[in-house]
């Protein structure tokens, strides 16, 4: 039996002799099947290919972990060193012994939490290796391709974890789309770790909100207004998006508020001057 990984989205599937016929996550309109058609790999094959994980400190107690060369959609995880243990926010497909040792040296993991199915990646592999739970929003349970007793499905709008860390469901891109609030981040001014539930765009004073990023399908105005209202009460200076370079370094709360307004105005026909 083999644990097949989809090359385009990085999702690891339940054990099977033959590769799965298709990848539901890539067939979904929020993703796409690669130009060369559906392809599969395994962790052993990726290890043999020379892929490795790099660790980059974004700020004290926040370390980004991503693969080089980039694999799948270039996901990177964020290791948050809270006062009550480490949380891995989002996950990546590649895992090897060197990565395990480096994570252990940073204090190991207490839990994993994931924003949405595009980051489910090899989450069960990580959960088993570190013997930790993985918090997923129950609204996206149908996108889990490899089940495990480590998976914890939470529901509702908010879940307090530990060390001041809080999961907030914003929905939008996926019904269970979740962001992580880290009030101790940015020197105590607060940080939001958002995956692409709130997407940091090329002009990093702004963010955006889409149903599908690769296929450019927008969210309706009422959804963006709902997301804006749901996150408005939280205080945060910095926002960490889906990739290493996608960070709003300062005044991130104001950036989210004004970006939501710009988006809704554009949908109503008022393009920026
Ligand atoms: Zn896929
Ligand atoms: Zn996504």
Overview of this structure, please?
This protein has 273 residues and is α+β, with helices and mostly antiparallel strands. It has one domain (5-267): Ribonuclease Z/Hydroxyacylglutathione hydrolase-like (Metallo-beta-lactamase, Chain A, 4-Layer Sandwich). The protein has 7 helices and 19 strands. The strands form 5 sheets. It has a 7-stranded mixed beta sheet with strand order 3-4-5-6-7-8-9, with helices on one face. It has a 6-stranded mixed beta sheet with strand order 10-11-12-13-18-19. A two-stranded antiparallel ribbon has the order 1-2. A hairpin with a 7-residue loop joins strand 4 and strand 5 (76-82). Helix 6 (221-231) runs antiparallel to helix 7. The longest helix is centred in the last third of the chain and has 16 residues, at 252-267. The radius of gyration is 18 Å and the shape is globular. The model has no long low-confidence stretch (mean pLDDT 97). Residues 116, 118, 173, 196 line the site of one zinc ion.
């Amino acid at each position: 039996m083999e644990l097949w990984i989809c090359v385009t989205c990085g999702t690891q599937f339940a054990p099977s002799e033959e590769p799965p016929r298709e990848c539901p996550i890539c067939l979904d309109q929020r993703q796409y099947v690669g130009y060369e058609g559906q392809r599969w790999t395994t962790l052993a094959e990726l290890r043999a290919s020379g892929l490795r994980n790099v660790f980059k400190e974004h700020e004290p107690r926040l370390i980004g972990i991503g693969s080089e060369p980039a694999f799948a959609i270039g996901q990177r995880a964020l290791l948050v060193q809270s006062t009550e243990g480490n949380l891995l926010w989002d996950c990546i497909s590649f895992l090897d012994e060197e990565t395990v040792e480096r994570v252990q040296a940073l204090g190991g993991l207490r839990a994993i939490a994931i924003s949405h199915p595009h980051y489910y990646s090899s989450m069960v592999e990580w959960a088993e290796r570190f013997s930790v739970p993985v918090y997923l929003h129950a609204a996206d349970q149908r996108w889990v391709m490899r089940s495990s007793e480590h998976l914890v499905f939470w529901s509702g709008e908010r879940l307090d974890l530990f060390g001041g860390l809080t999961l907030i469901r914003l929905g939008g891109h996926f019904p269970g789309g979740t962001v992580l609030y880290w009030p101790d981040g940015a020197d105590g001014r607060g940080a939001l770790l958002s995956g692409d539930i709130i997407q940091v765009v090329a002009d990093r004073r702004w963010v955006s909100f889409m149903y599908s990023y690769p296929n450019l399908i927008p969210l309706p105005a009422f959804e963006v207004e709902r997301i804006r209202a749901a996150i408005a009460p939280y205080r945060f200076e910095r926002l960490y998006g889906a990739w290493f370079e996608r960070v709003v370094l300062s005044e991130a709360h104001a950036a989210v508020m004004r970006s939501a307004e710009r988006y809704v105005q554009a949908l109503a026909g008022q393009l920026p001057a």
